[in-house]
Write a structure and sequence with these properties.
- The structure holds two protein chains of two kinds.
- Chain A is mainly α.
- Chain A contains ten helices and no strands.
- Chain B has a domain of 156 residues: Rossmann fold, CATH 3.40.50.300.
- Chain B has a six-stranded mixed β-sheet with strand order 6-7-8-3-9-10, with helices on both faces.
- In chain B, helix 2 packs across helix 3 and helix 2 packs parallel to helix 4.
- Classes of the chains: A mainly alpha, B alpha/beta.
Chain lengths: 251, 267
Amino acid sequence: MRQLAVPLFAIILFLLFWEMLVWVNGWPNYKMASPSDLWPAFWRFKWLFFTFGWETLWRTVLGLIIAIIVGVLLGMVMGFSKVVREGLYPLLVGFNAIPKATVVPIVALMFVGQHDLNTVLIAFMISFFPIAVSVSIGLSTLEPEYRDILRALGASKFTIFWKIALPKTLPEFFGALKVAVTLAFIGTNLMEIVSPHGRGLGALFDSGKTNSDYPLMFAVLIALAILGIALYYVVVFLERIFAGWAERQAD
Amino acid sequence: MTVRKNTGLIRIENVSHTFNTDTGVLPVLDDLTLSVPKNGFTAIVGPSGCGKSTVTRLVAGLLKPDKGTVWLQGQKVNTPRDIVGMAFQNPVLLEWRTILQNVMLPLEIVPNAMSSAEREARAQDLLKLVGLSGFEQKRPSELSGGMRQRASLCRALVHRPEVLILDEPFGALDAFTREDLWQTMHRLREEEPFTGVLITHDLRESIFLADEVVVLSGRPATVQYCQKLKQRGPKSLDQLYTPEAIETLNILREQIKIARKDEEDKL
C-alpha cells in the first residue's frame, strides 16, 4: 500500500507545483502549458494517442529486441576473444560517439518511405552499445577459478558459458538494459519527429508544433514518460525473475 | 603399459614447465618428480610464487607440462578428468544458486546414474558431515567465510573424486576458523577416503593434515625436501605442540629458509 501511495503522492505534489508555477508567473500556453491544459489536449486526440502510442511502443520494443540479440552476440564474441575485443572496441566506441540525431536524416534518405524500418533501425542503433559493452565486460572479467571448477571436471565450453558465465553476467546485462530502454525511446522519437508523414507519438508531437498546439506537445511528452516508465518496470520485473539473487546480495 | 615400481596414484615424473609472459619466458618447474600413494595426503609448501599452484593445475589436467609426464591411476594426464575435485582459496560459490545447488553442481557435469533425489541426498550427507545442516537453502552471501569454504569442500567431494586438490583453501580464514576446518578435513578423510594434495603456506597446517610434507625449492621449483610424518589419521590440536611436532616444524622452517635463499641466488 505504502509502496503505491508514496510515489502517487509525489506525482500529485509535482503536478500541483507545476500548476502553481505557471499560475503564479502568469505564463501563457505557448510558454509553458499547465497540467490542467493537458487533459483536454489528450481527450481531444485520445484515439490518436492510443494508435500512435502503440506504434511508438512496438517499434521501440522491436528495436530493443534486435539490440538485445545483436548486443549479446557482439558482447559474447568480444568477451571470449581478446583479438575481437581489441579490433571491435574502437569501431564501436566511434559508432556510439556519433550523435544519432545526425544519423537520422541519413537513414531516412537511405530507406525513403520505409518508416517502420527506419524507426526500428534507429531505436536499435542507439541502444545496442551499452548491452554489448556490459556483456563483454561481464564475460571477460570472469575470475579464472569460476571457469576452472567446471573445466577440471571436463565440462565443455558451452556448459561453462551456460552454467556460469551467462548467469554471472545477468546483473550487468539488466543494468545495461535499463539504460537501453530509455535510449531506444529517444531513437524511435527522433525518427518519428524528423521523418515526413511519420506516425507515432513523435509525429503527433511534430504536428502539435506545426499547429502551435502547445498543450498537445506537452501531453505527448507526458505520454512518452508514461510509456518509458511502463517499459522500464517491465525490465525491472524481468530482472527480479532472472537476476533477483544479485539484488539480495546488495542488502 | 609397462609396470612401474613407482606406483603412486598421482605421479609427477621429471616435469618441467615454463610460462610465456610479456616480459619473457618464466621457468616455474624444473625436473620435478613427486608421487602420492592411494589415499595418501601430501602437503606442498615452498616460497611464495614458486610454482605450487602450477603443480595443482598440472595434476588437474588444466595445464600440460612442457616436459615430463603426469600420471593419474596409471594413465597419462592430457585433459581434465572427472576423478579430480578442486577447492581454492576463493570458495567461488555461485551466488544465484543455494548452498545445496552449489554442492550438487559437479553432479550435473560428471556423467552419473544418480536420480535428482539421490543427488540431493548425497549433497545433504556431505553438508551434514561438515556441519552445514540447515543451511541448504541459504545463498552463499548469507554464510560466513568459513562456512563458504566448507560448502566449497563439499562441492569438491560430491562426485566422489579419487583425488582432492586443495590450493590454499584455508588461507583467507582467521586462525580459529582455520583450525576448525582442519578438523573437518580429518573427518572428511575418514568418511570419504581420497588421495589429497594440499598447497599451503602454513607449516602447522601441513603437518596437521598431511602424511608427507614436500618442500619445493625457489623458482624454478623442484623437490628440495620430503618429510614423512609418523602420526596418521585424526589428530587433535594438542599434538601440534608436542616436542616431536615442534622439531618437525623447525626442520621444515629451516628448509623453507634454504628454499628462499636458493631463489634469491637464482635471481
